[in-house]
Amino acid sequence: MQRDAFAVRWHGAVHAFVNSCRHQSLPLDFGDGHYFDDAFDALVCCHHGARFAPDTGECVEGPCRGAFLTALALEERDGALWCTGRRASDSPDTRTDRAPR
């Protein structure tokens, strides 16, 4: 299954996530590629205002607080970013895969 994803540069490091809010599985953006809030300190879901840490994908405020965006592993090769799958550190035993009920 193909899913939309996005990458952001945060404090010099690149982080990538599946473009699906943990609240209701809607895309974080309106299709315009805007993920950061005005202060550029959090990723924000445009539908319900959930705020996510740009480096970990943890929801720090909003209806899915404590849940995580699905993080993707990246490799940089010849100036291009390649997604190599889901980050190993995001296994179900170390991260909350679903929003709290």
List the helices and strands and how they pair.
Blueprint: E1 5-10, E2 13-18, E3 43-44, E4 51-52, E5 59-61, E6 71-77, E7 80-86
Antiparallel strand pairs: 1-2, 2-6, 3-4, 4-5, 6-7
Which structural traits does this protein have?
globular, mainly beta, three-stranded antiparallel β-sheet, Rieske Iron-sulfur Protein, 101 residues, disordered C terminus, four-stranded antiparallel β-sheet
Structure description:
The protein is mainly beta. The chain has one domain (5-90): 3-layer Sandwich (Rieske Iron-sulfur Protein), CATH 2.102.10.10. Helices cover 0% and strands 33% of the residues. The chain contains no helices and seven strands. It has strands at residues 5-10, 13-18, 43-44, 51-52, 59-61, 71-77, 80-86. The strands form two sheets. The protein has a four-stranded antiparallel β-sheet with strand order 1-2-6-7, with no helix packed on it. It has a three-stranded antiparallel β-sheet with strand order 3-4-5, with no helix packed on it. Strand 4 and strand 5 (59-61) form a beta hairpin. The radius of gyration is 13 Å and the shape is globular.
Provide the spatial order of strands within the biggest beta sheet.
1-2-6-7
The CATH superfamily is known as: Rieske [2Fe-2S] iron-sulphur domain
CATH topology value: Rieske Iron-sulfur Protein
- In CATH, what is the class? Mainly Beta
Radius of gyration: 13 Å
Task: Return the average pLDDT rounded to an integer.
Answer: 83
Largest sheet entry? 4 strands, antiparallel
Distance between the termini: 26 Å
Domain count: the total is: 1
The number of helices is: 0
Q: Write the CATH architecture name.
A: 3-layer Sandwich
- Given as residue ranges, the uncertain stretches (5+ residues, pLDDT < 50) are 90-101
Strand content: 25-35%
Shape: globular
Helix content: under 10%
Order of secondary-structure elements = EEEEEEE
What's the number of extended β-strand segments?
7
